[in-house]
Amino acid sequence: MLSPYLLFLGDVVELAAAKTAAGILQWRPEFCVGQIRVAGGTVDLGLPEMTPQVAAQKGAKTMIIGIANAGGFIPDSWIPTLVAALEAGLDLAAGMHTRLADLPIIRDTAKRLGRTLHDVRQPTQTFPPGNGRKRPGLRLLTVGTDCAVGKKYAALAIEKSMRARGMKADFRATGQTGIFISGRGVAVDSVVADFISGAAEWLSPANEPDHWDVIEGQGTLFHPAYAGVTLGLIHGSQPDALVVCHEPVRRQLVGFDHYPVADLEECIAATTRAARLTNPKARAVGVAINTSRMTEAQIEDSIAQIERQTGLPCRDPIRHGMDRIVDHIQTIWPA
């Protein structure tokens, strides 16, 4: 899709619901010219507030729906703004389960005006089941103790650190936000369950022996709704290295407060066991923590405790970067 972008924040009131827009802004700020909300929306990313017409005048080419709501649907209250964007000369992009092209007024307006609709959550190719055969190259998968805990940010920060020191590395997106950031990938939560492992194999194909595919994780093995996609990714990715993502102050799963967050050490052990089905040498190499709701004292205490308990380096990918974890990786897989 063409940049720059106008980020559509809809009517959401929690930043977590606008994580797609926030992720694009975090990693591709040069692509973002403004934001737009509808009645009731209170999330503010600090970008200039713009109508589609003003955004087009400022050079925007695409309006991206930056929302990741439960169910991935597009409510009727958004439709007038989406149509206005098309009429202002912008293409539309979305990572929703509801396809833009399945909404008659959106489809017909785009066709009449010659605009392009990008539904990145809808895979354009088919995948076979995973075959489990080991392939050349090195792979790192971010996993977690919950959803929305920082797996994408950790993977992007690891890729950044690897590339900065001359390592061969590519971020592999498995969700809509990652696809918007990197321009490629597959939204695995839209892949039929039997083929998730095959999609992960396709996403991280055979490569040079010293090349790292840094694969964005999804869900957690300890989630009652999303453990299936996590397991498929683990088996298809065949990770050599696992980085476990965790929010130390989170006690219940997001949106599932009747389930506690898994114990970190139990998560490391269970995830490593699962990974060793398709890669017997899989091992955890670090812990990435989300400190967005923590004080400096809490952060220091948590890092010290986690490193003492796990024996692994621990860092926040946004606050600290991932250099220390990549240092550890290089001691295990020297160039």
From TrEMBL:
Q: Give the D-glutamate N-acetyltransferase-like N-terminal domain ranges.
A: 42-123
One Pfam family from the UniProt entry? DUF1611_N
- What region holds the D-glutamate N-acetyltransferase-like C-terminal domain? 131-326
> InterPro entries of this UniProt entry?
DgcN-like, DgcN-like_C, DgcN-like_N, P-loop_NTPase
Do you know which NCBIfam families this protein is assigned to?
A: DgcN
Give the matching PANTHER family.
DUF1611 DOMAIN-CONTAINING PROTEIN, GLL3100 PROTEIN
What is the protein's given name? Answer: N-acetyltransferase DgcN
Which organism was this protein described from?
Steroidobacter flavus
Give the source lineage, highest ranks first: Bacteria, Pseudomonadati, Pseudomonadota, Gammaproteobacteria, Steroidobacterales
